[in-house]
Amino acid sequence: MTSTSKTLSAVAMAALLASTTTTASWAQSKAKKPASDKGITAEQLLNNTDDLYRGKSSMATVEMNVQTKRYKRSLQMKVLSKGTDKSLIRIMKPKKEKGVTTLKVGKNVWNYLPKIDRVMKVPSSMMSGSWMGSHFSNDDLVRESRFEKDYTYSIVERPADGKGRFVIDCVPKPNAPVVWGKVVVVVDGKSRLPTQQKFFDEKGRLVRTMTYSDIQDVGGGRFVPLKMRLEPANKKGEYTEIIQRNLKLDIDVPDSAFSQQSLKR
Asked: What band does 1 get if pLDDT is binned at 50, 70 and 90?
């Protein structure tokens, strides 16, 4: 997978590298909302989606469950992030993988393997490979774009009086650094939070679907979906599910926490 969607990138970092700090986004801020659904623009909804997992810093426990035709696995991880370019994730369970750590700084990714006590930078040739056996790739962790910048978009379905959903078609602009032929974003009409994203290739074929659920107030009136599920369209029954627990936002995190030395701590 080589997604360059900002939304997917946000989810990937939220899930894998815990870039899950939320801002008081437009949909959940104290700013006055439009009087009716007709006053809401696609740009507002997409910016809210893009910024859903952005912020200053975060700490969380993340459970990742992976189901494929060949295996089923579950990982429990401690994750730390600062902004959108610094993240550290350390596997706590299962025992055989405890201590395996991934560091992301900018577009660079390193892995620490405690069994051989070695830090390894992920080369460009391996960026498309699966991260920890999931349906996310290493490349998903570092690629970023924004709907507003890289796509043209339009609302093709609106809710009626807050009941129902917004459906937004997003088509990449010429020369935009994205691989999708189209992304369809579904937003709940009441909460204004995303519930689903569908990613299509250039021939209009569905490639994968991201579903958001379990919306919770994580403090300060900030609501985010704590569960995300990525399902590849061509692999029926397979998925990667992310569940965030004990999420703490806007904590004091020094830059030194995201050094290669910190991988071994």
From this structure: very low
Tokens for 63? 């459970």
Euclidean distance between CA atoms 128 and 147, whole angstroms: 22
Domain map (residue ranges) of the chain: 6-264
- Lowest-confidence region among 30-34, 86-90, 135-139: 30-34
Q: Are 143 and 2 in contact (CB under 8 A)?
A: yes
C-alpha distances (whole Å) from 225 to each of 88, 215, 232 are 21, 4, 20
CA–centroid distance for 157 within its chain? 24
Alpha helices in 124-197 (DSSP H): 138-142, 147-150
Query: Which CATH architecture describes the domain 6-264?
Result: Clam (2.50)
Q: Looking at residues 77-101, what average pLDDT do you find?
A: 89
Q: Would you tell me how many other CB atoms lie within 10 Å of the CB of residue 91? A: 20
DSSP three-state, residue 48: helix
Say what the pTM is: 0.76
